[in-house]
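Q: I have 208 residues here and want to know how they pack in 3D. Can you give me a structure?
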Amino acid sequence: MCGGTIAAIFALTKHRVLSYSLTIVILLLLFYPNLKLFKPQTYLNVEDSHYTSDEFIKWKISKTSFEFVPKGVKTKTEISEIEKKEITQVAISRDQIATAPYKIVSGEGEVEIKRNMPGSLILKTKSERGMELQLNTFEFPGWEVKLDGTKVIHQSDNDLKLLSVTVPSGEHTLQARFKNTPIRSLANFITLISIAFILLLEFKMQKK
């Protein structure tokens, strides 16, 4: 946005001195409120091996990355072992760490993974009495679940807001797919238009 504003200033303003002055003002307004980010806030007496250990990557990072989870995920506050200050993290225990893309919450049956990629999961299920499956994926807007090609209602009424769906008895194909929402599609369109506008301005400036 800042780059687009500066490009527009140079394209629409004939006086170079005024253009450079406005650019400097914009950059100052951008950097001044964030000056504190350019210097360390805290010095930690730890070695690199601590942050690259399997324990830290798989457990510590996962717990504290609450800003990347859906609204409503259960969180808790703890005192950081290193920084010695209170931090908010996901209320998750080690036995809740997913080892597979799905979990049978209730009932019994067989589940075969046919496809497991980011944004797309296909499972083949077989059960005599039906079962409830938990898909170990956060419930973000845009997830769509289909059973044998028909869209079905899914839930996320658990502490971690993971997708769950009831599968009836018999053999079925369960597909979960992440699709764009109208807002995301609009945002993508605005981004493309903005890029095209900046390129057009740059082209006109080069011709001058």
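Q: Anything worth noting?
A: The mean pLDDT is 83. The longest strand covers residues 170-178.
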